[in-house]
Amino acid sequence: QVQLVESGGGLVQAGGSLTLSCTASGTIFSIDAMGWYRQVPGKQRELVAVITSGGSTNYADSVKGRFTISRDNAKNTVVLQMNSLKPEDTAVYYCNAVVRPYGSTYKDYWGQGTQVTVSS
Fold it and tell me: What's the rounded mean pLDDT across residues 107-116?
């Protein structure tokens, strides 16, 4: 079994910063991409940022220049640093990892989600 545990959500004023962290644990052989998605009620879940095992990154246009994704491969952890937050960043943020468990193939895993609320 593989679990993703997130932390770091909360309430912040516009212009402020938050840091989200996600750690994968369990019977992990290797991890490919790790990333963050977000979802607001009534809308589809959307990609925020993703980082490969080699460190290549990709960001949604709406967060470029404000958010930074990083990972620690030794700790199976991915971090999203969010700066200059805007009310439109308010959403539930989900961690995602493409994980190969021991004796299995790569699969998508998701965290439980953490609420980020940005007040104006």
Answer: 97
What mean pLDDT do residues 36-52 have? 97
Instruction: Please provide the DSSP assignment of the chain as one string.
Output: -EEEEEE--EEEETT--EEEEEEEEESEEEEEEEEEEEE-TTS--EEEEEE-TT--EEE-GGGTTTEEEEEEGGGTEEEEEE-S--GGG-EEEEEEEEEEETTS--EEEE---EEEEEE-
Of 10-14, 32-36, 103-107, 113-117, give the lowest mean pLDDT range.
Answer: 103-107
